[in-house]
Amino acid sequence: MTALLTVDDLKVDIKTRSGTLHAVRGLSFTVNAGETLCIVGESGCGKSITSLALMGLLPRTAQRSAARLRFGDTDLTDARHARKVRGNDMVMIFQEPMTALNPAFPIGDQLTEAYLYHKGGTKAAARARAIEMLDLVGIGSPAERLSQFPHQLSGGLRQRVMIAMALMTDPKLLIADEPTTALDVTIQAQILRLLRDLQQKLGIAVIFITHDLGLVSRIADRVMVMYAGAMVEEGTAAEIFGAPRHPYTRALIDCIPQPGKTERGAPLGTIAGVVPSLIGTVQGCAFRTRCAFARTDCAASVPERAEGSHRWICIHADHPARMTETA
Amino acid sequence: MGIYLAKRIGLAVLVALFVSILAFGLLRLQGNAATALAGEGASPQDIAIIVETYGLDRPLVVQYATWLGNALTGDFGTSYFFKRPVAELIVSKVGNTVTLAVLSLGIALALSIPLGVLAAVYSGSWIDRVCSLISLMGQALPSFFLALCLVMVFAIQLRMFPASGTGSWQHFVLPAVTLGYYITPPFMRLVRAGMIDALSNDYVRTARAKGLPAHRVVLKHALRNALVPVVGLVTVQLGLLIGGSVVIESIFALDGLGYLAYQSISYRDFPVLQAVVLLLSLVYVVLTLLSDIVNAWLDPRLRVS
Predict the structure, then answer these.
(1) How far apart are CA A283 and CA A299, in angstroms?
(2) Distances in Å between the alpha carbon of A49 and those of A36, A183, A269, A279, B68?
(3) How crowded is the C-beta side of A269, counted as CA atoms within 13 Å?
């Protein structure tokens, strides 16, 4: 498989009053054509910042640097080249469908805008494409919808419009930043099914950002777990869920309530402690203050371990609990 | 949209009626209308004649109905001072005032929108501070002082524009610049605040995610939303400009409505004063109605409520 997106040593620094916040601390990964990569982690682990950094949408206070940031043959660190890819081959949908559409323009205008800009052609052709895309994402009577304004649509419909808008230019990579978090549970399931169907039908690669591991198990080809701005473990969905090597991954998985297994009325699983401050440098493993298996040498530099496509960063060669189970 | 319009127009008519009652009551509020009209040192006979001429002994409702009926047909009576029909007097002045107001507003918008957008896009930087300073000077300088400076430079030194009078379009340039610059700060502040707010919105991020060039994101997606409150201010300011350019009109001897209002107060010219008050209030009512309609077009969410 060919790498569609190559990220090498991505860093994002945000200047704050109390010092420089290292929101993303040297992230490296690839996304292959047609696959779904899920980036998981708690709030504040840097997963959304990562997606914005890839798209070049960081706020002005944030500084991005990377040894390599390539989309196919395009160097994304060059702003001029990046803009031709952004909104064209590489598109993004967001967490808040209620506010992501401009209230002042009919959705037809917003749907056709990027298409006309990147692909050119007549307004009639763009309109026809918009109708086709609205139909594809399961919106009824698409032609009439074009003249409607965002406030006339429900949250679920707006997220469908956002997806249709992203698909207008026939992209190769879709970045979805918690696209279902703001929606009702039933609508969440619909949108998720829609994204999975579209991904299979159109063969586009998806970076799916979420904090919901239960959801990850349903859609991911590969999973990257992030903690405190860095990768702690990455592997195929089977590797991550079947044989998690990092204590943090294992703790996250243990927090998923499971029907039949999780005791009714019992408190849900949690990970004690809070995410460390990312201001200044983090020495050693950032998770060690919350880790049940931490050793004193966790404060020193921690090795990156690999087994085929499975990578993790931990002092332990295998998950410590698993080692004791099997021993 | 139809129901929305009907509601707004209905409300405007009600307000206009109420205003007409106030304008009518103006004369009666200060006590005996006949003595007020007759002025100081009038004999009882004079007052009796006035009572009879103006029908002041009739019930108030009848008087109001007659006055309103006449006003609706354009008959506001005759000016005591100018000895001309009030309607004719107003018609001869209103054009100048409206021209001045519209020109000033145009200048204010042409200054404040680019300044506000620049200040918002580069908020916190030196560009922001320079833009804010330019606009703040308009507020800090008294308008008569700026008027005199402009006259000194452009009328006396450079002889580009006349210093006073109403004859040609050149006569309007200096007064319009003075007034326009004077009302720039509130517009600029509103545009700047609106743009800063709009630029931080999710839909601007969506527009940027489309790979659109920066000017399209700023001038289309953000500015359109930032202009909604500006429309409201335009109507308020236009009302103020039409009613309140007394100072500028007198400095430049511009023969407009503001100057007429000032004169009618000093000469106790009540028919003129009543007509001017009614007219200026109606200007407000109509402008508010217009701003509601324009806002509904700019912000489609308003159309349903």
Answers:
(1) 6
(2) 19, 21, 27, 15, 67
(3) 14
pLDDT tens digits for B134-166?
888 888 888 888 888 888 898 888 888 888 878
pLDDT tens digits, one per residue of B245-276: 777 887 887 888 878 877 887 777 778 888 88
Distance of residue B238 Cα from the nearest chain A Cα, in angstroms: 25
Closest residue to A57, CB basis, from B209, B298, B304: B209
Q: Does any CB of chain A come closer than 8 Å to the CB of residue B225?
A: yes
Cα(B17)–Cα(B278) distance, integer angstroms: 10
**Statement: B86-304 belongs to CATH 3.90.360.10:** no
Reported pTM: 0.77
The answer to whether B94 and B257 are in contact (CB under 8 A) is yes
Out of B206, B224, B301, the one facing A100 most closely (by C-beta) is B206
Domain ranges of chain B: 86-304
Structure confidence by residue, pLDDT tens digits, A105-124: 999 999 999 999 999 889 99
Nearest Cα residue in chain A from B209: A87
User: Distance (Å, rounded) from C-alpha B179 to C-alpha B189?
Assistant: 17
* Model ipTM value: 0.86
The strand pairing partners of A200, in sequence order, are: none
Task: Decide: A149 and A135 in contact? Cβ < 8 Å.
Answer: no
Shortest CB distance from A87 goes to which of B202, B209, B298? B209
- In this structure, the strands spanning A205-210 and A173-177 are parallel
B124 interfaces chain A, CB cutoff of 8 Å: no
Short-list B238, B228, B197, CA closest to B302: B228
* Residues 282-301 in B contacting A (C-alpha not used; CB under 8 Å): 298-301
